[in-house]
Structures are given as structure tokens and as C-alpha cells.
From TrEMBL:
Protein name: Release factor glutamine methyltransferase
Organism from which the protein derives: Quercus rubra
SUPFAM superfamilies in alphabetical order: S-adenosyl-L-methionine-dependent methyltransferases (SSF53335)
Tree of life domain: Eukaryota
InterPro entries in alphabetical order: RF_glutamine_MTase_cyano (IPR052663), SAM-dependent_MTases_sf (IPR029063)
């Protein structure tokens, strides 16, 4: 069985050796390996849109938060864009809309916003205080939006991300496309064993495993227990861990 390495982010003084004979003992389509902790040692952050709506607030309070957040975003103007190519007010306002969509269970409430002193209760996946803090982090601390909502859209996947795990760049999709092109020209490669070194969110392992089909195997490995925990969550979400 062939063993291929997709990528690696390891210090120069760290030697990596994987024995192909271990493939005879692999029972899972995507397996995890680490030199530190197993993927179950930490609980990953649950993406906001997957949380239970355990909080509530009035439409009026939600409107106050939204008006405050929008004013804060509008005050940025092009400051971030000019200083380090960051988001301008237009992008921040779109992110605010996405944050609301993730946080509010019933999107029908949007039509009620703007009604003065509306005390109708809205079910939320995060409390109003947390929403204030999240938006302060976004604007004042320049916290990446993906960390705020706990997910990243990548290809046709929605992957969990959090602080301690790199946010995927769009160009990463090209690696999956490359593997798809290679195996389409050589079906025998679908039965190979591939290793994603420094897997992070597990995106490449998941994307490539879906390309290979049931005959392929992917080992996702990382030195970070946080990354392994996030990757395990994403793998299980897409039904690849058996």
C-alpha cells in the first residue's frame, strides 16, 4: 500500500517517520495521530450556529445591540483597510448580519426589528452580553470573524475553527482539486494511504478522504491537542469517523 504525504508544518529538528505496515491495523477511514494528546482530551468550541438556543432577549434589547454594533462597524470606515488591508465598514456590516443569523434561532424576528419598545422574546444561541463582547473583540481587538462564530465555510463544508487553529485560506482548496485530478487518472491511487501532517481543522483530510471514497485511508496528524480536537469534531460531523 502506498503512503503519501500531503503537507507538513514541523520544526526542522523534528524527524517524522511513518511505517507503512501500520496501515494493516487501520480501521477508520480517517485516523488521528499526535505526539502529544489524543483528540478526545479537549472539547472543541461548538460553532455558534450549532449551539442550542438557551438564551433569550427582547426584540428591543436585540435592536439596541444591533444599532450599537452597526454604529461601531460604521465608525471604522476604511481605517483597517488603509492600515493593514483589513475589513472596511461594508464588510463589517455584512459580518454583523451573519453573526445575527447564527445567533438568532427564528430569523422571522428580523421583520419585527425597528418596532419601538418591542418586548417580544427572542431565543438566542448566545446571550446579549456575550454578543456585545464578541463584537468588541471583532472591532477593538481585531479578532478574526471566524473565531467569533466558531466556523469557516470551505468548499462545500462548514468547518469548526477556534483560537489555536489556523483559519483556512481559499487556496487550500486547490490541493483537494489536485488530488482529485491525480486519482481520476489513476484509480489505483484511491486505495493508497495518505497523511495530512499538521492537519489543523482536518479540512484537507476530510476533503481528500471524500475524493478517495471508501477505498482510501487518510491519517490526520498534528502536534497540537487543540487542532486534533477540532479536526476530530469536523471529521465526526461529516460521518467519516467510524
Amino acid at each position: 500500500m502506498k503512503l503519501s504525504f500531503i503537507r507538513g508544518c514541523f520544526p526542522s529538528n523534528l524527524s517524522i517517520f511513518v511505517n507503512p505496515s501500520i496501515s494493516t491495523n487501520l480501521l477508520r477511514p480517517v485516523c488521528f495521530s499526535s505526539m502529544s494528546s489524543p483528540p478526545t482530551s479537549l472539547k472543541p468550541q461548538i460553532p455558534l450556529f450549532l449551539r442550542l438556543p438557551l438564551h433569550s432577549a427582547s426584540v428591543s434589547d436585540l435592536q439596541k445591540w444591533h444599532d450599537w454594533a452597526k454604529n461601531l462597524a460604521s465608525s471604522v470606515g476604511t481605517t483597517f483597510l488603509d492600515s493593514d488591508d483589513g475589513p472596511d465598514s461594508g464588510i463589517l456590516c455584512r459580518e454583523l448580519k451573519w453573526l445575527m443569523e447564527d445567533a438568532i434561532e427564528d430569523h422571522g424576528v428580523f421583520s419585527q426589528m425597528g418596532i419601538e419598545d418591542n418586548q417580544t422574546k427572542v431565543r438566542l444561541r448566545a446571550g446579549i452580553e456575550e454578543l456585545y463582547n464578541l463584537w468588541k473583540q471583532r472591532i477593538e481587538e481585531r479578532w478574526p470573524f471566524q473565531y467569533l462564530v466558531g466556523c469557516k465555510h470551505w468548499r462545500d463544508l462548514v468547518l469548526s475553527v477556534q483560537d489555536g487553529v489556523l483559519i483556512l485560506r481559499p487556496e487550500t482548496e486547490l490541493i483537494v482539486d489536485l488530488v482529485a485530478d491525480v486519482v481520476s487518472n489513476n484509480e489505483g491511487l484511491r486505495e493508497g494511504l495518505l497523511a495530512d501532517l499538521g492537519t489543523g481543522t482536518g479540512a484537507l483530510a476530510i476533503g481528500i478522504r471524500r475524493i478517495l471514497g471508501s477505498r482510501g485511508r487518510v491519517i490526520a496528524t498534528d502536534l497540537s491537542p487543540v487542532a486534533l480536537s477540532v479536526a476530530a469534531f469536523n471529521v465526526q460531523k461529516y460521518g467519516l469517523q467510524m
